[in-house]
């Protein structure tokens, strides 16, 4: 009977297989970049061949990790590393699938007219892959500290391409529909690769530091409040919520109308009874707010966004309507009774929202 390798040797074998797998996927990404710069469909066919090799490597990694658990019963760092490698292999295999799918789309058609945007998006995605790769195999964890911020650049490019696709769809003919669907499909795959690279980075951080001492800076989700009376009501709502969610999400305030000069500090004495400190949020227009990782858009009052404004809001953003939160800031500033009625409704709404956000955080 052959002798069982040591834990150190088995884990080294797992990482070696994983590096080979990552090298194959990286070669596919590099080929896509070359195709966008200098189209050559012969190169793309090699990516399809690489995909079966990547699938075989994932199965070999799974078998090797199972052997580690069965024969070594690892603890501490070794246990975390083995678990992380299994997860990373799955993420990398999905990246490989997305790369192959992109190659198939490009083989069957021309490079999209939005070549420059796609190339920038692809290069940013490749950068994310290379950062996770170097952190994994060379131990330079500094490269993944800001990885979620870099992922935001890819998300912005995807939204830009989706808006272009929406405008193309307005032509409503078969050719324009095919163009738009291709843009949406390809940009979604690149965004998916970027997200999987972030998942990879999180597993590296987990293996090195464990759950209690993880150091990777995770992105905060964003909540945006919008009113149609200058932004002051939206600022008050955000102030009520701020204390309970400031460590979980970022808050933004926007308005559909002219930004008014009301000072939220005028409400300090009225807010003290609710143990609320007025927060000064920059009031923006819907076209200038940062929509990165926007979890929710909360509309305050009885109004609807125009079609152009609705197109700006990302599809992933959940839109919530609070029609009863509708009052003139001057009225509640000068009438404590009206402010109390407003604050009671607002407290109930924001407490419910804070609970939803907390549950979402627990699930993540």
Short structural summary:
With 364 residues, this protein is of the alpha/beta class. It has eleven helices and five strands; from the N terminus they run ααααααβαβαββαβαα.
Describe this structure in words.
The protein has 364 residues and is of the alpha/beta class. Helices cover 65% and strands 8% of the residues. It folds into two domains: 7-209, Methane Monooxygenase Hydroxylase, Chain G, domain 1 (Up-down Bundle), CATH 1.20.58.220; 221-363, Response regulator (Rossmann fold), CATH 3.40.50.2300. It has helices at residues 7-37, 41-72, 76-107, 115-138, 147-169, 174-209, 232-245, 268-271, 307-312, 329-334, 336-363; strands spanning 221-227, 249-255, 283-285, 294-300, 318-322. A five-stranded parallel β-sheet has the order 3-2-1-4-5, with helices on one face. Helix 1 (7-37) runs antiparallel to helix 2 (41-72), helix 1 (7-37) runs antiparallel to helix 4 and helix 5 packs antiparallel against helix 6 (174-209). It is flat, with a radius of gyration of 25 Å.
